[in-house]
Amino acid sequence: MEFKHEQYAINKFCEFKNREAESDFMEYEKATSLGIVRILIVVMGFSFALFAVSDYYYYGKESEFFISLGLRGAALIITVVSSFLAASFKRYNRTLILITLTELAVFAIYLLNLYAGVLFASAQQAGEPAISHFMAVLVLILTVFLIPNRWKNSLFAGFFIIACYLIFCSVFLGYTDSPSLPQQGLYLGICLVSCAIFIYGRENSERRHFAAEKLLELITITDWLTGINNRRHFERILSLWIKNKRHDPFCLLFFDIDDFKNVNDTYGHKTGDEVLVKTVNVVSSRIRDEDIFARWGGEEFVILFGGVDSGMGEELAERLLKAVENNPCGEAGKVTISIGVVQYRRDEGNENDESMENFVKRADEKMYEAKRGGKNRVSAEK
Length: 382
Known about the structure:
- The chain folds into two domains: 5-218, no CATH class; 231-380, Alpha-Beta Plaits.
- Helices cover 65% and strands 8% of the residues.
- It contains 13 helices and five strands.
- The chain has a five-stranded mixed β-sheet with strand order 2-3-1-4-5, sandwiched between helices.
- Helix 2 (52-59) runs antiparallel to helix 3 and helix 4 (92-120) packs antiparallel against helix 6.
- It is elongated.
- The two termini are 33 Å apart.
- The model is unreliable at 123-127 (pLDDT under 50).
């Protein structure tokens, strides 16, 4: 089990190196950002469509204006559809890719509209100052970085927009007024780099904040030495299992490391800690991810097995018993455990279900029964 801070290390692309941590962060981003992302993408579409008013005065002819109106209307439709589709993806990564493609689609429509201006505008209009086109692209780049997205997605979209715009201008426009094409490229590049640095810093800060919250959460629910669940968190989960019934039938294994006091007295507490960690690692490697493993206190541990009756629980306990016995713990040598196994008792009328305290008590009594029977054995209710 990995509960150390390295789990939340961030790579140079501003992503968690650990895939599970990255996946958790993206789910967090989906919960906190999806709503505003959907709104902003529609706002971008409406803002782009509103510039049809300036096109009306620019073209002067209704036939040419309607072409521009159709293009801007298409961009609006794309953003609205994209906003609806954004909520349909289970993985937020795909939602962000859709948003990036939507931004590029709007930019492509802008270039088509600009090309229509080249074809249909009069000679006087064709000499429109380059600053108007430059400012439009600048706003698009700022919009790309304004809409919450992954840093590398925004950087790619911004670079793509600048490159395509400069190529388009050099091929179809060919004017040399101020600012010149090289000047535009320089200014847009500065804008891109500045936005990229800002967004990178913001995303890095968000991930570090997320990591800090997760680590704090881990501290409150995990055992400081072994890294598994602590007693308080285990009791919280067990109470939920009792209430929701989704894990019925379920078993509780209560085990204790045999003669652990002798280990501490003979080899010292450091070796005793190593025995605890080694035992936990052996058991953890042989149970399912969905099983709930916790340190009850001292050298006592508990495991919840969902969808398992007492017979199956006894078989699982026997396997764990042999696994621990067959994996010596360094200086302490062979270590054994005694296990008690009980199945939760559910009342058919759902009015007198067994209490959590009684359930744990029965497992504890079975564990001590195994101790009295000679240790290194399993005692299960029949």
